[in-house]
Each structure stands twice: as structure tokens, then as C-alpha cells.
Amino acid sequence: MRTIILDGYNVIYKIPELTSKLNESLEAARIALAMLLSTWKKKYLYSRVYIVFDGKDNVTREYPQTKKVCGIDCCFTGGGEEADERIITLIRDYGDSSEITVISDDNKVRNNCKAFGVKAESPSFLQEPGMKSKNSKKEPIKIISTKKDREITAYYANYLKQKGRL
Fold first, then answer.
1. Residue 137 domain-assigned?
2. Strand intervals (E) in 65-153
3. How far apart are CA 143 and CA 135, in angstroms?
4. How far is it, in rounded angstroms, from Cα 29 to Cα 15?
5. Which CATH number do you get for residue 81?
6. CA angle 74, 165, 46 (to 5 degrees)
7. Domain that holds residue 119
8. What is the pLDDT of residues 9-45, one digit of tens each?
9. N or C: where does the chain have the smaller number of CB atoms within 10 Å of the terminal CB?
10. pTM, full prediction
11. Are 135 and 22 in contact (CB under 8 A)?
12. How many domains is the chain partitioned into structurally?
């Protein structure tokens, strides 16, 4: 089952069309993200889209931990848990990692994706080519050798094993 997991606020703050919705409210930005993903899910044939938001005590009281918005599963963490931790738990527990794509620019999330063999994409992955802001900065591509890449991955996997997370 093709699944996409998003770091909700990370994505909202990286896509200008969603960031502008913050002028209305945080709720408006979350709904705009869910609407974008509802269309995106159908177009690109994903079975499940799961958005994880950092929850605060006042937010989690207003919302159940998971709710559907525009047909998209939205999860609000609570009890001191951050969205990053929930995403890492999901990718660790999910199973067939080849079917998962995680959308986040957070280094911790991306490193865990790599350690678990999960595809990680930047929030710009969600934007149609014509939607990308002309003002958005292009990040320089950092290329490392295959050997160095394997060393980093092995080191991080070993670290996760020592922490009991792999």
C-alpha cells in the first residue's frame, strides 16, 4: 500500500501557498494542506496519506488524536511527543519501507528514513512544477561519495541499534 507521511508544520512553512494561509489562521493552513494532499493523493495514486502535526495540550484537547480532514488522516501528537518522534515510530513499525515516502526537511526525520530504507523527500516534492515559487531558493546539491554515504548510513544504523531503535 503506497503511503505518504508528512511532517505537517514543516511542510506548511516550506510551501509559500500554505505559509500565506497562516495570515488567516493555523487551522486555515492545515486545511489548505489537507486539500492539496486530497487532490495529490488521487492524482498520484497513493493509498494513504498521513499528516503528523506537533500537538500542544490546548490543541489536542480541541481535536482527537487523529481526525480526517478532506479525507486525509491528520494526527496531532500530545503528551510531550513531537511529530518527528511519531513519524520515526511510524516508519519503524510500518513494515514494507519501499512503499513509504516521508515528506520533511527535518534532518532527524530524514536520517531515520535513510536508516530504515524509507524514501524521504523535501516539501517541494508536493508542488507541481508550475506552482513552485520563483522566489524560492534552490538549495545547492551536496554530493558525497558512495563510500562516504555507506559509512554514514552504517554509522547511523549502528547508533540506532545501540539505542534499541533498530
1. no
2. 66-69, 72-76, 100-103, 119-121
3. 24
4. 10
5. 3.40.50
6. 35
7. 3-132
8. 999 999 999 999 999 999 999 999 999 999 888 888 8
9. N
10. 0.72
11. no
12. 1
